[in-house]
Amino acid sequence: MNTPTFCLLVTVAAVATTRADAAEPLRYSVDLGDRTGHVFAVTLDVDSLSPKNDVFQFASTAPGTYQVMDIGRYVRSFEALDRKGQPIATEHVSTNQWRIAEPRRVRTIHYSIVATRDTVVSEHVVYPMCGSTLQEDHAQINGQAVFGFPRGMQAAPISIALKYPSDWKIGTALKLTAGRYHADNFDQLVDSPILLGRLTTARIDVTGVPIEIFVFSRTDQITAPQLAAAMSSMLYAAGGFLGKLPVDRYAFLYDFGPVSAGAWEHSYSSEYVLNEVPYSPAIGARVTDIAAHEFFHVVTPLNIHSEIIEHFNFETPVPSQHLWLYEGTTEWAAHKMQLESGLKMPDAYLATLVGKIRSDRLQFDTTYSLSKLAKTSFSDSGQVQYGNIYQRGAVVAGLLDIKLLELSGGKHGLRDLITDLSKSYGKKRAFPEDSLFDVIVRKTSPDVRDFVTRYIKGAEHPPVKEYYAKLGITLVEDPNGLPVKFEVDPNPTPEQLRLRAAWLGRPAIVP
Question: Whole-model pTM?
Answer without folding.
Answer: 0.84
